[in-house]
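Table 4 source record.
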Amino acid sequence: MKRTTYMVGLLLIVYGLGLGVSISVAQPYPNRPIQLIIPNVPGSIM
């Protein structure tokens, strides 16, 4: 009986953590394009 209770508790914790991650991934950030600043001139070799 203890093992079943332990497994159910563990599954609920894992499910709760997964639910929190899926909600945070759904946020619309960034809401505009990201601009990369590269300090080399076009055609140069890094």
